[in-house]
UniProtKB/TrEMBL annotation:
GO terms for cellular component: SCF ubiquitin ligase complex. PANTHER family: PARTNER OF PAIRED, ISOFORM B-RELATED. SMART domains: LRR_CC. InterPro entries: F-box-like_dom_sf (IPR036047), F-box_dom (IPR001810), FBXL15_LRR (IPR057207), Leu-rich_rpt_Cys-con_subtyp (IPR006553), LRR_dom_sf (IPR032675). Residues 50-168 form the F-box/LRR-repeat protein 15-like leucin rich repeat domain. This is F-box domain-containing protein. SUPFAM superfamilies: F-box domain, RNI-like. Residues 7-40 form the F-box domain.
C-alpha cells in the first residue's frame, strides 16, 4: 500500500516478537495506541511472556490485572512496590486471579504491597497450586494468609515473610507442616519467638531459616550469632 511504513508490512507474528523485547510498559502502552495492528501486536507479545515485572512502574489495579490476563503463558509475576511503583489493592488481586495463567504461576512477588489484606491474598493464592516461590514480605498479612498458602501451594519451595509482624508461630508451624517441599523461609523482622524456629526445624530439619545471621541448635535450643 502506498505510503505504508516498512514496519507496517511486517507479519503480525514478527511484530509481536519485536514488542516482546520492549520491557517498558509505558512504551508498550504508547505502541498499542499507534494503530489497531500495533495494539493487537502488543497483546500477542504479552501472551508470549513468561515473566512480567511491574516493580518501579506506576500501575493501578485495573491496568495491572488487564495486562496479566493478556499474559496467558506467564510463569513469574512481580508486582513489588518501589518508591514510585505499584500500589495494588485487594481489588487488583481479585482481577489477577481471573487470569488464565494463574494456575501456572511458579513465582509471585507482592513485596511491600501495603494496600493488600488477607482477603485479597487468600483469594489469589487459592488458585496458585503450581506456586514454588512467594515473596509477601513487607505486608500486613496474618496467619489467615499462611493457612491459605499451606492449603493451596503444595509445591512451595521458598517464602519471604520479611517484616510480616502480624504472623505468629502457629501460622508458621502450620505452613511448614503442610508444605513439605519448603526449603527456605525468611522471617527477618517478624515477632516470632525462638522456640517456634526450633519447632520448624523439628518438622523439617533441612529447612533454611533466614536471616543467616541466626543459627539454631535443635538439640540444646540455644540461639547465637553466626561467626
Amino acid at each position: 500500500m502506498e505510503g505504508e511504513g516498512e514496519i507496517d508490512r511486517l507479519p503480525m507474528d514478527l511484530l509481536a516478537h519485536i514488542f516482546v523485547m520492549i520491557t517498558s510498559f509505558t512504551d508498550l502502552a504508547q505502541a498499542s495506541g499507534v494503530c489497531r495492528k500495533w495494539k493487537q501486536g502488543v497483546k500477542q507479545s504479552l501472551g508470549r511472556r513468561e515473566t512480567l515485572s511491574f516493580a518501579g512502574c506506576k500501575m493501578d489495579d485495573d491496568s495491572t490485572a488487564r495486562l496479566v490476563r493478556y499474559a496467558y503463558s506467564l510463569k513469574e509475576l512481580d508486582i513489588s512496590r518501589s518508591r514510585w511503583g505499584c500500589q495494588i489493592t485487594d481489588h487488583g488481586l481479585y482481577g489477577i486471579s481471573l487470569a488464565r495463567c494463574i494456575s501456572n504461576l511458579t513465582s509471585i512477588s507482592l513485596w511491600g504491597m501495603t494496600g493488600i489484606t488477607d482477603e485479597g491474598v487468600v483469594h489469589l493464592i487459592s488458585k496458585t497450586n503450581s506456586l514454588q516461590h512467594l515473596n509477601i514480605g513487607g505486608t500486613f498479612i496474618t496467619d489467615e494468609s499462611l493457612f491459605a498458602i499451606a492449603d493451596s501451594c503444595p509445591q512451595l519451595k521458598s517464602i519471604v515473610l520479611w517484616s510480616c509482624r502480624h504472623v505468629t508461630g502457629n501460622g508458621l508451624l502450620f505452613l511448614v507442616n503442610k508444605c513439605r517441599r519448603l526449603e527456605s523461609i525468611n522471617v527477618w523482622g517478624t515477632r516470632v519467638p525462638v522456640d517456634c524456629f526450633i519447632g520448624l526445624l523439628t518438622i523439617s530439619p533441612a529447612l533454611q531459616i533466614k536471616p543467616r545471621g541466626l543459627q539454631l541448635d535443635v538439640g540444646n535450643a540455644p540461639l547465637w550469632p553466626a561467626v
